[in-house]
Amino acid sequence: MPVDFPTEIQRKKRKNNLQHKFPLVRIVFFFILIVVAFSNGWFRKLADKLPLPGNEEPVLQRVEEWIEGCTSYDGTPFELKDGYVQCSWVVNDSLVLPNSFLRYVKGLASDGAKIHWVAPKKDFGEALLVVVEDTTRSVYLHMPREDSSKVWISSKTGCLFPGPCPHVPLGWSALSIVDNFDFEGLEQLLSADVFRGLGEAPIYPVLPGVVLEAGRDSLGMFVELNHGNGVTSRMFGIGSWKMAPTVGKMLDVKDAVGRLSPQDSASFFLTLRQNGLFVRWKDFYKLTHPVDSAQIAIFKKHLPF
């Protein structure tokens, strides 16, 4: 029996039928895929990934470090001129401050007082000065010494802060003790400093203190004071009392204890002791005044306000 082979026409028909059926399946498949993609938000996600206008990543504005440092301690930040900034606080019981100096200043201030920390923006931790606005206004300068280390200085007195702030007992300098000094029998100068001034000039305590002893010796009137913190002073050779001091009385640096002798040029002597040891006046004064007045004046002149 003869076998019938498909003719060329039959093969083309079958091929055309297959070609017509296959695109329909693909269309249905792609339609389903589009529906699924749309329902799952794939188109929106794809659009967000494309570099289209509005798709840029938002640039987060970085808070400057000095502002963070200020506000983290409940301070209020302020911009000043010339690259300087300020952080301010109002004193209350719950206020916590970032360093020991500010905490010490807070301890001296009353509730409601304002404390201002002024520093360069680029180095906010290194203050230029601190201002305290209380019943009075106090300014503390952060100044370099000769060895480049920094100390806090009271702008009002020029003294190291905190610490004792001695005043010259006369408006005059103590005589220097030098190798070739002619003592002329004044052996007490080995443990005392001598001050000279105009006759009958008033003599003041070098620091506030309590009278330990007062009286008369071979050189004239004398008074000894306890200034606290291991510091005592004894002034002797006083010409006369201005107001006779009594033991236990508190004297301020503005309370004159006596006067020089009534002559053109008169002297009296000062023995200053710290923890029982004699200290030369010029050394004690230098220790408590580590920056001289000329440097302080220059520093103030270049303040940014």
Any overview of this molecule?
The protein is of the alpha+beta class. The chain contains six helices and 16 strands. The strands form three sheets. Strands 7, 9, 10, 11, 13, 15 and 16 form a seven-stranded antiparallel beta sheet that branches. A six-stranded antiparallel beta sheet has the order 1-2-3-4-5-6, covered by helices on one side. Strands 8-14-12 form a three-stranded antiparallel beta sheet, with no helix packed on it. Strand 5 (137-144) and strand 6 (150-154) form a beta hairpin.
Summary?
The protein is an alpha+beta fold and 305 residues long. The chain is 24% helix and 29% strand. Among the domains are: 90 residues, no CATH class; 95 residues, Glucose Permease (Domain IIA).
Q: Strand fraction band? A: 25-35%
What does the largest sheet look like? Answer: 7 strands, antiparallel
Helix run count = 6
* SSE run: HHHEEHEEEEEEEEEEEEEEHH
Proper CATH architecture of the domain at 187-281: Distorted Sandwich
